[in-house]
Amino acid sequence: xxxxxxxxxxxxxxxxxxxxxxxxxxxxxxxxxxxxxxxxxxxxxxxxxxxxxxxxxxxxxxxxxxxxxxxxxxxxxxxxxxxxxxxxxxxxxxxxxxxxxxxxxxxxxxxxxxxxxxxxxxxxxxxxxxxxxxxxxxxxxxxxxxxxxxxxxxxxxxxxxxxxxxxxxxxxxxxxxxxxxxxxxxxxxxxxxxxxxxxxxxxxx
Amino acid sequence: xxxxxxxxxxxxxxxxxxxxxxxxxxxxxxxxxxxxxxxxxxxxxxxxxxxxxxxxxxxxxxxxxxxxxxxxxxxxxxxxxxxxxxxxxxxxxxxxxxxxxxxxxxxxxxxxxxxxxxxxxxxxxxxxxxxxxxxxxxxxxxxxxxxxxxxxxxxxxxxxxxxxxxxxxxxxxxxxxxxxxxxxxxxxxxxxxxxxxxxxxxxxxxxxxxxxxxxxxxxxxxxxxxxxxxxxxxxxxxxxxxxxxxxxxxxxxxxxxxxxxxxxxxxxxxxxxxxxxxxxxxxxxxxxxxxxxxxxxxxxxxxxxxxxxxxxxxxxxxxxxxxxxxxxxxxxxxxxxxxxxxxxxxxxxxxxxxxxxxxxxxxxxxxxxxxxxxxxxxxxxxxxxxxxxxxxxxxxxxxxxxxxxxxxxxxxxxxxxxxxxxxxxxxxxxxxxxxxxxxxxxxxxxxxxxxxxxxxxxxxxxxxxxxxxxxxxxxxxxxxxxxxxxxxxxxxxxxxxxxxxxxxxxxxxxxxxxxxxxxxxxxxxxxxxxxxxxxxxxxxxxxxxxxxxxxxxxxxxxxxxxxxxxxxxxxxxxxxxxxxxxxxxxxxxxxxxxxxxxxxxxxxxxxxxxxxxxxxxxxxxxxxxxxxxxxxxxxxx
Lengths: 205, 637
Prior knowledge:
The structure holds 2 protein chains of 2 kinds. Chain A has helices at about 20-40, 50-65, 90-100, 135-140, 180-185, 190-195, and strands at about 5, 65-70, 80-85, 110-115, 125-130, 150, 165-170, 170-180, 190, 200. In chain A, strand 3 (about 80-85), helix 3 and strand 4 form a beta-alpha-beta unit. Chain A has a 7-stranded mixed sheet, sandwiched between helices. Chain A is about 35% helix and about 20% strand. Chain A is built from 6 helices and 10 strands; from the N terminus they run βααββαββαβββαβαβ. In chain A, helix 2 crosses helix 3 (about 90-100). The longest helix of chain A is centred in the N-terminal third of the chain and has 25 residues, at about 20-40. Chain B is mostly beta strands. Helices cover about 10% and strands about 55% of the residues of chain B. Chain B has a 22-stranded antiparallel β-barrel. A 5-stranded mixed sheet of chain B has the order 1-8-9-4-5. A 3-stranded antiparallel sheet of chain B has the order 13-38-37, with no helix packed on it. In chain B, a hairpin with a 4-residue loop joins strand 6 and strand 7. Chain B is globular, with a radius of gyration of 25 Å. Classes of the chains: A alpha/beta, B mainly beta. Strand 1 of chain A pairs antiparallel with strand 32 of chain B.
């Protein structure tokens, strides 16, 4: 079938007269130069770009200091506190970086990257990266009834039995706490942690 | 543009930047030294995470985040859509926009599906979106997903050139109150929102918004009579359920839109939207949605439309070994009633539209790095019966954060009322017992079709840098034309054809925690033509396409200090052929300052480079858009 194209458009660019684009170009170039110049000053050696992830990693390490594990689960002298990270290698790497050479309450912190379906082994904290509801449920089930502080980051409305869930509220990383889940996991959370949480779900509700 | 204005602008930008030696966001090494409270107050921009989630999506998806919207200074949904490099956004006048992806742009654009929390706002009357009736409190939008290219296998017919998903924040994420006032020379708006907990597992929010825009003017300074006033209020409630969640939301609006030579167009509408998500066991999840929607549009001397819609959708996903299967079904029932004017009529003036669909899709992990997806949707409509909407996709991840993908789709635009039932004049003279219409509907109009091939590459080589490139080729057939009838008059038929090819490129770079740069470019060729024997006259009706060969966008966002931010964007749109519109460059800028933790003042400059420019339409009647400055005050409580 013959096609008569009524108004072909050349693929090759046709630049308009500089009078049209010069002001834009100058303004853009000056601003970009200023921005980039400024950026060099602000840059530090570390990977500072992904602030949300780094804030979450910092929270995870801090959480270990505000939880009491039952005696049989608390690490013995010389044993590290173990953080397992499922489905978010970047958080695991950031955790390894910030815990290297510094511990929490005088203990070493070890970080383990986990794969979906892998048996988690002995953990103190399990961070589960955002996934679909079934994936998160599967990960939570793998440590159910064990004294593990479970932390999720789902932004959807899910009633999970994780102890802590991160949410981004007003461009800030906040967390909600489930005391019911903490009780089931036989963990005691400090009142200071609860005071900072933006929402605390009490047991029995 | 007068030179001294430009100098003032640049000087102001320099001054603002020079003052930015104040505190920057903390570096990662310092984060561990912060207390829990201090960590809770670090402002994060959650863009990269969404990019990471996209790492395995074999489609051309761009996500506009909440902070992108806030920092752009956009005050309406169409203006926020300018942030997506894969969309063409052309403002027509004070309240109308021409928005599309991959060409075919016009104020009557009909190949883009737009959903707000799963509720379609695509009008079955005129096969497009009445942008002047869509509004939200922009601060309550969590993100806007913009998919260019066909999305029919998931979203159904009419998602031919793209899908826009506007997703609002959960009530859980917006606790407390927020009031905002926006004022500029040509627009004024006020919004109020309050959110709180409702028991242990539920949250709600309420909002109200008022917005008023003045008429725009044409180049000669005459009013186009397209300004408006609009009032809207609504709510959203979210429940956390055992292993799932439920949401109930609703909105109601009313507006008066100016129209030349008549009293105002009256618009009104209300909707109620309920959804339930959850998982059954550890390998499956589901989603159910039921919604009701009522809209009214009283366009004096033209028509009055009343439309009631019920929409029910269900989807089930199952992970089984290497397969991830999805299946779903949906039904949409729409009932309209039209009070026709004298000039033209939708006949019959009362119609029930039933659309049902079934779909299934399987994503198979052939190897750890290679995924193959095959999907099919069957959608049944009043006019053409069952339409098949198949899709094949292949994605290969050569590295953790890289994906090379390709996709082959067939998609259709099903007929709408305007294609099938549009008659002019409303009452035709009878000749030999037969009514003689000038435009005699489109009783033989069938679906427009497109076969689309896409090839894309997306990568995030470092946490700071990500990019995406997509090449597309689409073959359109049976496009709408207006053909003469043997006995006189014209009718809608399908004798148009088209070939579209192009590339979409975009990237984001975060050289530091306080600086974000992004850029996007589309280069495209949209060629439409007529099948042999066609004597199309739609070229004179404004129904034809008008697209630039190239458009691009550059944006820079800088945190000057803990309390102040600067954002600049520069955009270019190539010239449009018919009606001819010259290419233009424009710049928007926003500077914000937190006076107190709960109070923010922002100064928004729009179209700063020229005194005025045009974006769409024929001279001399078309609107010109002037340089403008807005002031916004936001108070949280």
